[in-house]
């Protein structure tokens, strides 16, 4: 942080004093509409790049139309500047807590063998909504705790089906099976369950120990999305019949590597596995939307479709970043900008498109407000309430910028349509390079982030530096939780 501060100081020496900078707009939060607490369905797809969906310029250009998701966008609001964190675990942590993941010790995808995930001190959006009488369910990848004590059903969810970590681990048993490499054969190079146990498929309910119902291998990977959708649909039907408000967190498995379609979709597009998976994603989304409509709750159900990250970077599953440059695990726009669609009939404007900045941390206070819950007051919450903006009650977002971390490296800062890079990295496999001076990008005139505009636009250092200074001061006042911190965690006084 000190090295960043020195670089910033040298770059902004001719800029006006920080106290003159413009602050992030903080509009008064909107009250939720009076029709009763809405059901909330949050479909978070996995590593879907900006340019994949038809409504974002992909669809048939990527080998498969996406009519159901495109129609969802037409029925609601689509954001062009929805921002996430650079990796799966950080984005999911930010969604659940409303806090940048650097605060929670969840700033990187965990590697096996060490404690990982959210401490139980964190208060998730599921806990907030559960406290307001919501039924809460989650299906798919959790990625915020591999130990039983940190599973979703210990973090506010009534039920869960899925995996604790990531889909990469499907390779472990399956590659050995294909090559005939089993420990009993005397092979010392292949995977051994005695060294790294296979990732379990789990079902769990609040107050009960999770039950293993399978093992993640390539066959299970292919059928994972169907199982996730079936669980979500049953949950929606059950709670709609009981007239109980619910929060359904559908943590989609698509299009995370290995990107493999369900057998029913294999070969359907004629354009390969990736396109088949895009077609399956659209179909599964349609199944959930149909369940909502058939249950007669469409008008009082807030649906969000979003991605946790930018596109995959690994051959042969690379995604498409649309007009942007880069991949996830970086601070490039292709990493930070993700698809986001929200529908709430009669409340969220239909057909609206906005380039206003929204961050995934903003979902926490926004959904809390919609559900009638209050956010915690005993910790810094980085998210800002965007309900009035999303309901069309104001044109501007309540956020103008944010710091962008890649793992624990402060890599960039965004403000309005500008970005300042402190560390340069285009692809996840590139070596991060600390810049001697920050690199300033005008995101309206340079979508590929190729030209440094710092020499002629140094004035943007004022609001950008203010964002960084304020956040640095916040980290000093509220020291971040270290990765691997065990429970119980008690913040320092």
TrEMBL record:
CDD domains, per database record: ARS_like (cd16142)
The keyword Nucleotide-binding appears for this protein: no
Keyword annotations from UniProtKB, A to Z: Calcium, Hydrolase, Metal-binding, Signal
Chain ranges of the Sulfatase N-terminal domain: 38-372
Cofactor dependence: Ca(2+)
Entries under Pfam families matching the protein: Sulfatase
Leader peptide range in chain numbering: 1-27
InterPro entries (UniProt xref): Alkaline_phosphatase_core_sf (IPR017850), Sulfatase (IPR050738), Sulfatase_N (IPR000917)
The organism's place on the tree of life at top rank: Bacteria
PANTHER family: ARYLSULFATASE FAMILY MEMBER, ARYLSULFATASE G
Entry's family note: Belongs to the sulfatase family.
Name this protein carries in UniProt: Arylsulfatase
Taxon lineage: Bacteria, Pseudomonadati, Pseudomonadota, Betaproteobacteria, Burkholderiales
